[in-house]
Amino acid sequence: MGLWLATGWHAPAFAQTSNDSYSAMLTYLDSSAIDGNAMQNTQGVTGVNQATGNGNLQGNLRAFAVGDQAQAMIQAQQHAHAYASNATLYASATISGHAYDNAQGIASINQVSGNNNTQLNGVAAALTKQGIREATDGTLSATVSASAGGQPSSNPHAQAGGTRSVGVDPSAMEGFDGVMQLNQVAGSGNASDNLLLLSAPPSSH
C-alpha cells in the first residue's frame, strides 16, 4: 500500500492584453489541472491536494482499524476567512488525459481554483471479528465551515462576471476500481466534503 501526495500549480494560457501585465493577470486567473498519465496504474491509498489562489484549506484524512473490537476515528475542523481581497475572475479545475486510468484502491482528490474555499475528503473503516464494535457517527467527525468576503476588492476585474468551470475528461479515470473521492471547486467561498464510513464484520464462511 502506498501513499502519494501531489501539489501543483498550473498557469492558464490566456492572451495578455495591453492593459494587463502578467503579474496583474495572476491576481484574477486561476487554473489547476491533473493530466497526462498522473496516478495511472497506482494501487493502494493515494491523495492529491492541488490549489491555485489564496486562503484555501484542504484535507484528505484516513483511518483504518482491523482486529477484535477495532475502532476507527477521524476528526477535522476547517475555517476559512476573507484572507484574499481579490476575487478570481477566471477559474478552472480539470482532470484530463489518462489520469487515474486503471488505478486501484482509495483515491482522494481535492482540486481548487479560487480563494477562501474549504475541501475535505474523509474515509474511516473498521473491520472487527468478535464483539463487533461499530463505528458510530461520532467516531467519524468532520466539521467544515467557510466564511469568505467582507473585504473590498482592489481588483478592477472582480465585478466583471468571468467564468468558472470544473470538469473530468471522459478519457480520465477509465478502468478505476475502488473508492474515488473527488472535490472540484472553481470560485470563492465554497465548502465541499466527502465522507465515507464503513464498519463490517468478516464473513464466517
Short description:
The chain is an all-beta fold and 205 residues long. It has a domain at 29-80 and 97-149 and 167-199.
Q: Descriptors for this entry?
A:
14 strands, flat, mainly beta, 1 helix
Structure description:
This protein is mainly beta. Helix content is 2%, strand content 44%. The chain has one helix at 22-25, and strands spanning 2-6, 29-34, 43-54, 63-66, 74-80, 90-95, 104-115, 118-120, 124-127, 140-146, 163-168, 177-188, 191-193, 197-199. The strands form 5 sheets. Strands 1-3-7-12 form a 4-stranded parallel beta sheet, with no helix packed on it. A 3-stranded parallel beta sheet has the order 2-6-11, with no helix packed on it. The longest helix is centred in the N-terminal third of the chain and has 4 residues, at 22-25. Mean pLDDT is 74; it is low at 1-18 and 131-159. This is Adhesin. It comes from Dyella dinghuensis.
What characterizes the major β-sheet?
A: 4 strands, parallel
The SS-based structural class is mainly beta
Give the low-confidence spans.
Answer: 1-18, 131-159
Portion in helices? under 10%
Order of helices and strands: EHEEEEEEEEEEEEE
Write the layout of secondary structure elements.
Blueprint: E1 2-6, H1 22-25, E2 29-34, E3 43-54, E4 63-66, E5 74-80, E6 90-95, E7 104-115, E8 118-120, E9 124-127, E10 140-146, E11 163-168, E12 177-188, E13 191-193, E14 197-199
